[in-house]
Amino acid sequence: MSRPLVYITGASSGIGQALALRYHQAGYRLALVARRTDEVQAWARGLGIRADTCRIFAADVRDIDAITAAGRACLADQGVPDVVIANAGISVGVDTAIAEDLEVVRRTFETNNLGMCATFQPFISPMRARGTGRLVGIASVAGIRGLPGHGAYCASKAAVISYLESLRGELHGSGVGVVTLLPGYIATPLTASNRYSMPFLMQPEAFAARAFDAIDDGVSYRVIPWQMGVVAKLMRLLPNAVFDRLLVGRERKHRAGE
User: pTM for the complete prediction?
Assistant: First the structure.
């Protein structure tokens, strides 16, 4: 119990699993949340992670009762985490002209936005009472500007950035820090089927190493890798007419079932 504790959602693959490994290597106890708990358990066994240093909770972040219950179970069994990382997210292309894609939009916001709020909710009061802790939200460079066929994901990640900024202001002076991380293109199942170029593509382990340092440093906002931070700033500065022309002919994100 003297070792620090990290709580991570979406821990069964990709960024979440890479972050879990990096924190384990740093000596943290793990509280890992996933829908596919069998995969997380197999991963932990394969690395020889002892059961007394790693608890695995089954929850879908879209289910408010389930994800908040997982947070309360972590508090009861392991104590107040030092770091909570709301990482679970989905990325699916949408076409607003197609009626069934409206359900994809709903699912995206329930996962990427409501799920993040529900992940943090059980921990805010205990962290504030203790006077320390870090709440980390995984946003995306895609939240900087909208991309064709990617409206649900881009909008949800833009909302993540604004939400975390609001939360940072609410917790200012409490000792609880809020960290916004914006990955660029990371080689995960979410990007595996992308049919467009992905500049500065990173492996999840490389992202996790840089994310760990950013969280440990207590930064409020960081784009990883830094090159995508430059790209993001340039994208934001471009006039709409120029930005729109740059996207002409760009391949769209796959829709569900494609």
Answer: 0.93
